[in-house]
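Lab notebook, page 48
Experiment: co-folding of the full assembly
Goal: obtain a model of how the components sit together before planning crosslinking
Operator: M.T.
Materials (sequences as entered):
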Amino acid sequence: MSTTVTRPDESEVTAPAKSGRTSAGIRRALPAAAILIAIGLIWEAVSHWFGVPNYVLPSLDSIWSTGVSSWSGTLASATWVTTEEVVLGFLLSIVIALVIAFALHMSRVVRNAIYPLLIGSQAVPVVVIAPVLAIIFGYTITPKLIVVTLICFFPIVVNTIDGLASVDPELLRVMRTLDGNRWATLRRVEAPAALPSIFSGLRIAATYAPIGAVFGEYAGSQNGLGYVMIQAIPQLETALVFAAIFILTAEAILLFIAVSVLERIICPWAREGKR
Amino acid sequence: MGASGPGMPAPGPGAPGAAPAAPVTSGIGLRLSGVARNFGPLVAVSGVDLEVPLHSRLAIVGPSGCGKSTLLALICGLDEPSEGTIDVLGATTSADRLRRCAWMPQRDLLLPWRDVLGNAALALENQGVRRRAARQRVGHLVERFGLAGFEEKLPHQLSGGMRQRVSFLRTLVAGKEVLLLDEPFGALDSITRADLQEWLRTALDTEPRTTVLVTHDVEEALLIGERVVVMSARPGRIRAQFEVHLPHAGSRRELIRHPEFAELRDEILSLLEAVT
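Observation: model returned without errors.
Model output:
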């Protein structure tokens, strides 16, 4: 996967010309593109010339044509359903994670009480819990959102807490002499300081979210990319499975990029010293 | 901490320096009596008696680890003394002292996401002034701090000297009566440091405030302080006090060449050597 965040190499203060930045971006993306093309070529060669049956390793062109031909019939609506689960689940996990993280940061009692529970929640086997949720909530979107949230919230919580606690203690003392109470310090110092780590957590969570949605759909669903895969595998429609996988991959990458772009807009200062 | 009644400034043990002159300005800014601070078995400072008249400037010099910074933290209410009382313009509890003291540490500790105005306006916003109004009020001061034209620059776009000036502006904007400076120029190169020392001296001459400066640079102490206190290493005690009588108007270079400056500097340096 070519999911490196491209940070334009800006020299200290002077901003490079727009065209220079674009060409630098292209140069940065070149190795990733080259590797993708190489993998694609090998894939094509293996599937066409080594007599690998199509249900084991379909060729890229057959995946493409399957994807195109079944787009309007199945894949389009499945993609929509899964995207909805991924995006809503991701947003839900952000809200829940931030609330938990700030509560843990503000109160030692809450931290001691809840942290073990949070760690324990990560040991819950999602594969097992998903069908139970499907029994409780039926084939609705709810169990999928719960599974996505369960998988996504943890990295956000951990990174947010680390970020909030990362403020220089001397700066906190300065804030006290500048008449900053607890709330002012949280709002004007700790929360902004935590933003870069919050975004690190979000980027990790963004790559987990599509997996969570597929887990949820596997446990019981009537549509979605996971549902398409369950249906296609017994019928040996491997090309369709791969088409669904590629769409999921693209979704994860897009979500990741969206988070990175948002980070650059919200905390441009964080790029300083981070190359 | 309960109410305290510092009746009289007890002369500290081992304070052979010149007797503190009667405060020319009205009243006393700071008074420490018998102040000690222990961290477990470690005695950081002990038996400190100090008096700083209102609007006058005291410089504290001493070897590293002599508890200078601890003393400042105690004065401004970030910490409580294990023994003794601290009176800052009548405030004796740490919360009240915090309200009266501004503290500036060696590192500028600016917020990287706020521009110059935003950083300088931090205290005003903490005091409940709305963001825009706070920026406007600070905007009038920028010129005097040599920051005109840099109002909307982020800290990483400024030089070290400018960052320190922003930090200083941020400290002053808090509007506290007492100014506590903990090696404010220690992290700067010597040229910038000399520049800022002269600037600070003029700034405090035109707008006097009760100031305590902690430094290990004797010249800096003599340039900025009107009185210089020498502390000994662990446990930090006051060894001597010196009055500095130097012409007010002189430039930094003139002052350093002044015979009294040289004499005081040598005396303090030899004392520091004995104390270390």
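Interpretation: Chain A touches chain B at residues 13, 168, 170-171, 173-181, 184, 188-189, 192-193, 195, 267, 269-270, 272-273 (CB under 8 Å).
Next step: discuss with group before ordering constructs.
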